[in-house]
Amino acid sequence: MSGHAGKFLPRSHPGTQAYWDACRRHEFIIQQCGDCGTHQFYPRIFCTSCASSAVAWVPASGHGKVLTWTVLQRAVSSAYAADTPYIIALIELREGPVLMSKVCGCEAGSVYTGMPVEVSFEDWSDEISMPVFVVASG
After folding, report:
1. Measured between alpha carbons, how far is 8 from 84 in angstroms, rounded to an integer?
2. Which long-range contacts (CB under 8 A, 24 or more apart) does 66-73 make?
3. Which pLDDT score, from 0 to 100, does residue 11 have?
4. Is the residue at 2 inside a domain?
5. Which residue, of 17, 102, 104, 137, has the fewest CB within 10 Å?
6. Residue 8: inside a domain, yes or no?
7. Sheet of 29-33, strands arranged across
8. 6 belongs to a structural domain
9. pLDDT at 3
10. Mean pLDDT, to the nearest integer, of 79-89?
């Protein structure tokens, strides 16, 4: 965790507390609408498909594929300097939503569109574990 000192930590609020609590337990959850069944991410108080307020947190597979990516060569601050270069990608989850995340454990030149990935977690503090993605096993 010491390598994450000074990094921008997300702040939870009532609408995201369940998500960050699950991440801290290294569990990956997203929202699903109880009326139409649509999965969504980032957290909202209503379904983006049917506008229902019957959204609930559900376990997600944690599997997805890279849609597009970029390689960051220059750190946004000194707290991130040791991480460069690093890969930021748009990940399409098996359940449908797309999210932006860091891809770890592979060389920048080996990332490709459609690359299968799965969620992992980096513990940034005692309170915050960040979901990241690694090349899917198998």
Report:
1. 16
2. 66/90, 66/91, 66/103, 66/111, 66/112, 66/113, 66/114, 66/115, 66/117, 67/91, 67/92, 67/98, 67/113, 68/113, 69/103, 69/111, 71/108
3. 87
4. no
5. 137
6. no
7. 39-40, 29-33, 55-59
8. no
9. 59
10. 91
Task: Count structural domains, the chain.
Answer: 1
What pLDDT score does 8 carry? 84
Q: Which residue has the higher pLDDT, 124 or 26?
A: 26
What domain range includes position 124? 13-135
Give whole-number Cα distances, 60 to 14, 39, 73, 86, 112, in Å. Answer: 20, 9, 31, 25, 23
Do the domain assignments include residue 1? no
| Tokens found for residue 53 | 């307020």
Helix (H) or strand (E) holding 97: none
The pLDDT-based confidence of 52 (bands split at 50, 70, 90) is very high
